[in-house]
């Protein structure tokens, strides 16, 4: 049975991610969650305040999640983003997509309710293009 719970510090070392959309921010905030099944971490995701009224949506997703719980995860991420915006201290959520799976990850970002904003050429940490997605209040 799949559960969603508050992320614990050790969860980061227990996931084998297919992709990692991770900003240079605190991944252990109150807005960080883990999806797991039978003790296996399927995904870790959250929203971290970056500066001012801007938050960053980040995630680490395993191959296993897509086959069984892809739709559940998309629904939960959409509700998490809405709930985080409702707190009132953020006007913008953003996410960056890059790397070899960027087309697939970009489609996933859109499914999660993010809107494509721009592409920054060769700005990714691995030298690939960085695609920026956003949600505005």
Overview of this protein structure:
Helix 1 (63-86) links the parallel strand 5 (54-62) and strand 6. It is globular, with a radius of gyration of 14 Å. Strands 1, 2, 3, 4, 5, 6, 7 and 8 form an eight-stranded mixed beta sheet that branches. 31% of the residues are buried. It has helices spanning 63-86, 102-111, and strands at residues 2-6, 17-21, 32-37, 40-51, 54-62, 92-97, 115-120, 130-136. With 137 residues, it is of the alpha+beta class.
Structure in a nutshell:
The chain is α+β, with helices and mostly antiparallel strands and 137 residues long.
Task: List its salient traits.
137 residues, globular, alpha+beta, 2 helices, 25% helix
Radius of gyration, rounded?
14 Å
Number of helices: 2
Shape: globular
- How helix-rich are the residues, as a percent range? 10-25%
Q: Given the helix and strand composition, which structural class is it?
A: alpha+beta
N- to C-terminal distance: 35 Å
Number of strands: 8
Percentage beta strand: 35-45%
Low-confidence stretches: none
SSE topology:
Layout: E1 2-6, E2 17-21, E3 32-37, E4 40-51, E5 54-62, H1 63-86, E6 92-97, H2 102-111, E7 115-120, E8 130-136
Parallel strand pairs: 5-6
Antiparallel strand pairs: 1-3, 2-5, 3-4, 4-5, 6-8, 7-8
């Amino acid at each position: 049975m799949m559960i969603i719970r508050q992320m614990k510090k050790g969860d980061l070392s227990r996931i084998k991610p297919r992709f990692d959309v991770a900003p240079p921010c605190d991944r252990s905030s109150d807005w960080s969650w883990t999806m797991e099944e039978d003790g296996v971490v399927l995904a870790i995701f959250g929203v971290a305040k970056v500066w001012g009224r801007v938050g960053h949506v980040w995630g680490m997703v395993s191959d296993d999640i897509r086959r069984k719980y892809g739709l559940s995860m998309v629904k939960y991420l959409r509700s998490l983003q809405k709930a985080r915006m409702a707190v009132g201290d953020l006007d913008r959520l953003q996410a960056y997509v890059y790397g070899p799976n960027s087309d697939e990850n970009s489609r996933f970002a859109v499914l999660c309710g993010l809107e494509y904003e721009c592409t920054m050429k060769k700005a990714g940490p691995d030298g690939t293009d960085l695609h920026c997605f956003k949600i505005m209040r």
